[in-house]
Automatic annotation (TrEMBL):
This is Uncharacterized protein.
């Protein structure tokens, strides 16, 4: 987010756009990652990115 004063509806729209973009990237299985470790969901990644 670039602006300080942003409407809640604009913020929600930006979060939705980022979430949809991340979902479209597809799934990848890493052979180096442990099978026990759970991968983050898209909404969790978006939430961590925005704090």
């Amino acid at each position: 987010m670039q602006r300080e004063n942003i409407l809640p509806s604009e913020r929600a729209f930006a979060y939705r756009m980022k979430s949809e973009a991340m979902k479209r990237q597809g799934f990848r299985t890493d052979l180096t990652s442990s099978q026990v470790v759970t991968k983050l969901r898209t909404d969790d990644k978006v939430a961590q990115g925005f704090g």
